Amino acid sequence: MAHGMEPSVVFTSSDGAVVVIDVPRSLEESQVLPGSNLTRRIISTPPIKTPWQVPEPKKGSAAKHVSPSAAIADLMTLESVKAALETARADHHGPWCWPRACYEQIDNGSAPAGGAVSDADAKADAARSTKRKSQPPSTVSDVDGKVSSGTLIPTQSCHLLGTIESQREAFLQSAPQFDLIVLDPPWPSRSVKRKSDGYTTVRGMEEARNLLLQIPVASHLKSDGLVAIWVTNKAAVSDLLTGAGGLFSQWGLEPVGEWIWLKITSAGEPVSDPESAWRKPWERLLIARKTGSSTSLPTPMKVMMGVPDVHSRKPNVRGHFKDILPIDYKGLEVFARNLTAGWWSWGNEATLFQQEHHWVSVKNEKSGL
User: Which of these, 89, 92, 129, lies nearest to 9 by C-alpha position?
Assistant: First the structure.
């Protein structure tokens, strides 16, 4: 790792079922090919120090009609989270995240130390980081890694910038088959609607279904490939994928595992009560393979503990599949908000976090520029 930078995986349990990850570092690693030196730091918000204050619903108001299968899945997730916390607390004795590059620190020319700005500054940083620039749909491929009109283009990356509908034909004509397809759909979300800088989401589950059916997953997934899709904690979302006649079956897929991103503070505590009725401290990544494929995961349930960053930034998972898929495997991210070296990215915000103002070079950071 360049300049003595630590890898994004901070800790791994003996069985590999629990890992502590650094979210910004995973994005920094995604900008170069595996094994290459890092050249840039992503500008982040300070790591959260204390759990969020989440109001609980009044007695009786949180009751929901949840299917038995959804209730069992929620219980399994909760138990996996509790077990992961016990494992990490017992076996991990280091930091829970690495120092971050934050806006105020960069502007003042000081070395990033993490957590050195106020809550007000953090909110301003988040607003700046989610600023969107209007760009026309386009197809761009790059093999050298460079800056193009203020957009940082990673080595050997290719992206389709535009909606699924507007870029579908370009994808069908030019895209290869992939070993891994990662999707982060704009699921219906009340919390996103409440945010002034929230990204666009679909209006309901039927609209989500129609949107996802436009993506030619079955024809562009290799026979031993995997599909990984981020889901919310709403039962209807999982049912849309895994239920009878769901999208997995229509894509010719079968579930093979689930990874959980457990959001924690810089002290290793969940950002909210795991048993909260309103706001769970995790997001789930459902993983599927082609029906009949022999591809498997080392452990079907994996918990990735990580301190969250700017809203809508998720951990880059490229490195977590390196021991599961072939060497130099080819990946695609749909509904992407940043690019990954060696991968394809597709979405109307695919270059959102590739703008130069989200990054500082390692050299400039060291010199305080």
Answer: 92
Q: What 3-state class would DSSP assign to 131?
A: coil
In whole angstroms, what is the distance from residue 311 CA to residue 201 CA?
Answer: 14
Partners of 267 in the β-ladder: none
Contact criterion met (CB below 8 Å) for 309 and 23: yes
Low-confidence ranges of the chain (pLDDT < 50): 1-2, 111-137, 192-199, 369
Provide the Cα torsion 155, 219, 136, 344; round to 10°: -10
- Please give the structure tokens belonging to residue 159: 């992206």
Nearest to 236 by CA among 73, 61, 57: 73
Decide: 339 and 189 in contact? Cβ < 8 Å.
no
Query: Cα(first)–Cα(last) distance of the chain, in Å?
Result: 22
Q: How far apart are CA 135 and CA 40, in angstroms?
A: 23
Q: How far is CA 134 from CA 137, 159, 262, 351, 353, in A?
A: 10, 16, 33, 11, 13
Token pair in block for residue 304: 């990735």
**pTM for this one?**
0.87
Would you state the structure tokens that stand for residue 106, as one six-digit string? 């960069």
Q: Which 8-state DSSP code applies to residue 23?
A: H
